[in-house]
Amino acid sequence: MIAACPAEGYAAGCEAIAAMDQRDDLARIAAPTLVISGADDPATPPEHGERIRDGIRDSRLVVVPNAAHLANVEQPDVVAQLILDHVTD
To answer: Which residue among 45, 47, 67, 83 is least packed, with the fewest CB closer than 10 Å?
Structure first.
């Protein structure tokens, strides 16, 4: 899917979110939240997940080993189980 995206479209999407900063809105999230981060993600490293977790009450962070930016693709069984456990708790 990513490879099929036109380069201009992908670049425009990146440009649209490059300066996005929604950290001030995190405290408004009231639902229990699971933050998933790939251990090897260079774009949004685990430290970013820590900031998100720290900004949301009742949240937790799980860092998935051997995964980068597409942890759900790189470690689908691990991520699926994390989500399943989260929604059934």
So the answer is: 47
